[in-house]
Structures are given as C-alpha cells and as structure tokens.
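User: what does the whole thing look like in 3D?
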Amino acid sequence: MADVKHWDSEETLKQMKDAMAIDDEGMFTLMGRRIVVTPQKTFGLMMRSAADLGGINAAKIFMRQAGYEIAIDMAKIIKELLKIDGEELIVFYCETAGKRGWGFNVIEEIDVEKGFIRTNLYFSPFVTGFPEGLEVSACDFQAGAIEGMFNAVGKNKVHIVETKCVAKGDDVCRFENK
Ligand SMILES: [Zn+2]
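Assistant: Here's the predicted 3D structure for the full assembly of 178 residues, as structure tokens:
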C-alpha cells in the first residue's frame, strides 16, 4: 500500500472546506459548482445494479461512458476556474479526485505528449459493490474518466485499460495504456 496519509491531512480538509459553500438556494457547491455529497458505496452499488440488470459487460460499458462524459465536463471546469491544461490538468484531476472520495491516484508515469499514463488507484469506490470478487475489473468509470481527461487536452486516441483491480483480488487498481 502506498503512503497516502499526506492526502488525509488537516491541510487537505481545510482546502476542501474553504472550496465548499452553500449557494442562495441552499445547495452545496465546490469551487462555485453544485455538487452531490453521497456515501462512497453509492458508486459501487450503481455499478452492481447495472451488472445485475444487464450483465457485467453492459455495466462496464455504461460506467466507462459515464466516467468519460463527466471527465469532459470536469475538465472544462478545471480549465475555466484554474486556468490549467495539458499534463498539469490530468495530474490535478488525478490528485484531487481522492480528496473528493474517488480514491487516491498515485501516478507512476505520465507523458501527455505521447498519450501515456500509468497510475495506481487506492480505495476505489467502484469495487465496494462486489465484496465477493469478480473475474473482471470493476472501475471502468475511472478508466473512462482518465481517458476523458486525455481527450480534453487534445489526445483523443488514448485508450486507458484497467490492468489490475482490487475486485479481481489484485493489491491495487491500475490504469494504463495498452
Ligand atoms: Zn478497480
């Protein structure tokens, strides 16, 4: 297990609190955008429900597409508010996702020009829906999200695959280009 303690610090908590507010209609906002605060299990259960209804392969496609679309939208917000792009944007997304409950990405290698990334995700919320384990990976939302981030910085040919997944019994969830 990587040392991810530094993300769970008082400073991180303060940054999150400072970025959160309530708008004039009483809705939570983060960096000026409305957000939904939900238990981490929600996304595991969502993936699980999709798998129960349409089979695991349909669930994987559905969640990958959802992650992709959300990342495209998220990238717009990051570009607009923080004025960052390229590798900086992808690294920012990967590192701050954990603070918002999506699991902690530890990037091992990234080369945006070549369209390459290898990152390990700890505490993925998507594996929580499959406590009995799976034959295949479960974090397709995250794979789609990283792919969406690459698309948002102009690299639309990048295909991200989850090569290791805690749902399959691996020690970590790993995303990389194949
Ligand atoms: Zn996984």
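In plain terms: Residues 95 and 105 are 6 Å apart (CA to CA). The longest strand covers residues 104-111.
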